[in-house]
Amino acid sequence: MYRVLLHNDDYTTMEFVVEVLMYVFSKSPESAAKIMMNVHQKGIGVCGVYTHEIAETKVDTVHNLARESGYPLRCSMEQE
């Protein structure tokens, strides 16, 4: 299983991060806001734990959405 992580940057808005968490990771608004604050305050936040294929797809989806919106948001995965 793999953890999918979002990384803080100085350009991506908090609102966009919350939207990504709700859209890509099916988080509730409250859960998305909590993860976003972890990203903002600690530099990284765990979005969820998935199989390798699903984690890889979610990372790619986040990168595509960020690029389309003009943000440098980074997403990665690491083995649990």
Give the N-terminus to C-terminus distance in angstroms: 6 Å
Number of domains: 1
Helix-strand sequence: EHHEHE
Which range best describes the helical content: under 10%, 10-25%, 25-40%, 40-55%, 55-70% or over 70%? 55-70%
Query: Under CATH, the topology is which?
Result: Ribosomal Protein L30, Chain: A
Count, helices: 3
Q: Mean pLDDT, as a whole number?
A: 97
- Side by side, the strands of the main sheet go 2-1-3
**Number of DSSP strand runs:** 3
The first-level CATH class name: Alpha Beta
Low-confidence stretches: none
GO molecular function: peptidase activity
Subunit structure: Binds to the N-terminal domain of the chaperone ClpA.
Keywords: Hydrolase, Protease
Organism: Desulfosarcina alkanivorans
Written description of the protein model:
- Strands 2-1-3 form a 3-stranded antiparallel sheet.
- The chain is α+β, with helices and mostly antiparallel strands.
- Helix 1 packs across helix 2.
- The protein has one domain: Ribosomal Protein L30, Chain: A (2-Layer Sandwich), CATH 3.30.1390.
- The radius of gyration is 11 Å and the shape is globular.
- It has 3 helices and 3 strands.
What is the structure about, briefly put?
InterPro entries: ClpS, ClpS_core, Ribosomal_bL12_C/ClpS-like. This protein is of the alpha+beta class and 80 residues long. It has three helices and three strands.
Write a concise keyword list for the protein shown above:
alpha+beta, three-stranded antiparallel beta sheet, Ribosomal Protein L30, Chain: A, single chain, 80 residues
